[in-house]
Design a protein that fits this description.
GO terms for molecular function: D-malate dehydrogenase (decarboxylating) (NAD+) activity; magnesium ion binding; NAD binding. Its EC number is 1.1.1.83. It comes from Piscinibacter gummiphilus. Keywords: Manganese, Metal-binding, NAD, Oxidoreductase. Belongs to the isocitrate and isopropylmalate dehydrogenases family. The chain has 363 residues and is an alpha/beta fold. It has 2 domains: 189 residues, Isopropylmalate Dehydrogenase; 142 residues, 3-Layer(aba) Sandwich (Isopropylmalate Dehydrogenase), CATH 3.40.718.10. It contains 11 helices and 12 strands. A 10-stranded mixed β-sheet has the order 2-1-3-12-11-4-5-10-8-9, sandwiched between helices. Strands 6-7 form a two-stranded antiparallel ribbon. The protein binds nicotinamide-adenine-dinucleotide (NAD), potassium ion and manganese (II) ion (MN).
Length: 363
């Protein structure tokens, strides 16, 4: 029987609640005849590690992750440590260290969940946002001079390379091609950002020639926000820069009902390194430690993890279990207007997996 080696990194805040819940779902899946097993290793990196060791993860931390089949991540962000320290010291160190350059963010309205768009039918909102995850606005290049003085100047330099832009556009065209509508929207801000974004548009035209069966269009990022709200059915696969897609995907999650249900994969498409799966939300300081976190975003990330491992039947089983649970309003957490706890939702998904396993045995 195949054994997958999975690293779990809960990190901070509600990451410490939702990642153990995600692991429970994977364990329930393996226990119900999935035909494979997991070997987990848990890494206690994050704010607590920083207080003890002065860094968010050990200097050789990537070496400990290198041999894993996948990583399940929670959140980096601690109320007592500046956000740029926690983010760059942990999550971005892994994403950039393992060149996980494609960040894939599916969004759709799950059964039983009401989005804020009253005119939108569930089928009208079914998107995958592809986020460039290795450079651009989050290149980390820049600095401050004359700090604290009136003449202080500061820069965050957005670096886009032809190689980096071409590989993410190629990935997005390929993903669009694999979906039923074969449709891609390329989002830029090439009217105002007249260098890198113009290059992005040019490369999109070049890459599109290799995908004649994909219908594609361009949209400026500000107009794209309005289109997401007013005409959601006109979008399918979307590709955008690191910063633009970061913002658009929180909007997408909110339109689909809650930040708490949205998943993501930080993917190395060339499979040189392990890929990392996580809910798109952060540490949620306002609800941490209270058992109120919605674990659905983590469970959906587990589905993406299973798909990445090639376990498509198991992935479909977990997705069906999630949808059966969201369809029941008594199992909605507070962000969805309900009263269920993280533990209750987790138990319900695990029970559903057990039930479908006995159905399969009976069949
Ligand atoms: P956040 O996602 O943590 O929270 C935003 C709002 O959404 C809060 O009101 C929160 O309660 C709610 N929310 C988020 N996830 C939820 C869930 N699963 N269930 C129910 N409600 C949920 O964003 P923020 O407040 O901007 O950031 C808090 C910290 O998290 C910061 O330190 C930030 O840097 C960090 N962060 C980390 C990541 C990451 O590691 N990938 C992503 C985003 C934010
Ligand atoms: K996260
Ligand atoms: Mn974000």
């Amino acid at each position: 029987m195949k054994t997958y080696r999975i690293a779990t990194i809960p990190g901070d805040g509600i990451g410490k609640e939702v990642v153990p819940a995600g692991r429970q779902v994977l364990e329930a899946l393996a226990a119900t005849g999935a035909g494979f097993s997991f070997e987990f290793e848990d890494f206690g990196w994050g704010g607590d590690w920083f207080r003890a060791h002065g860094e968010m993860m050990p200097a050789n931390g990537l070496d400990a992750l290198r041999g894993k089949d996948a990583i399940l991540f929670g959140s980096a962000g601690d109320p007592h440590i500046p956000d740029h320290v926690t983010l760059w010291g942990l999550r971005l160190k892994i994403c950039q260290g393992f060149d996980q350059y494609a960040n894939v963010r599916p969004t759709r309205i799950l059964p039983g969940i009401d989005g804020p768009l009253k005119r939108c039918k569930a089928d009208d909102l079914n998107w995958v946002i592809v986020r460039e995850n290795s450079e651009g606005e989050y290149s980390g290049v820049g600095g401050r001079v004359h700090q604290g003085h009136p003449i202080e100047a500061a820069t965050d330099v957005s670096i886009m390379t032809r190689t980096g832009v071409e590989r993410i556009l190629r990935f997005a065209f390929k993903l669009a091609q694999s979906r039923p509508r074969k449709q891609l929207t390329v989002i830029t801000k090439s009217n105002a950002q007249r260098h890198a974004m113009v290059m992005w548009d040019e490369i999109a035209v070049q890459v599109s020639r290799d995908f004649p069966d994909v219908t594609w269009d361009k949209e400026l990022v500000d107009a794209a926000t309005a289109r997401m709200v007013n005409k959601p059915a006109t979008l399918d696969t979307i590709v955008a820069t690191n910063l633009h897609a970061d913002i658009l995907s929180d909007l997408a999650a909110a339109l689909a009902g809650s930040l708490g249900i949205a998943p993501t994969g930080n993917i190395d498409p060339e499979r040189r390194y392990p890929s990392m799966f996580e809910p798109i939300h952060g540490s949620a300081f306002d609800i941490m430690g209270k058992g109120l976190a919605n674990p659905v975003g983590t469970f959906w990330s587990v589905v993406m993890l299973l798909e990445h491992l090639g376990e498509h039947a198991a992935a479909a089983r977990v997705m069906q279990a999630i949808e059966a649970v969201t369809a029941d309003p008594s199992l909605h957490t507070r962000d969805l207007g309900g009263t269920a706890t993280t533990a209750q939702v987790t138990a319900a998904v695990c029970a559903r997996l057990a039930a479908t396993a006995s159905d399969r045995r009976a069949a």
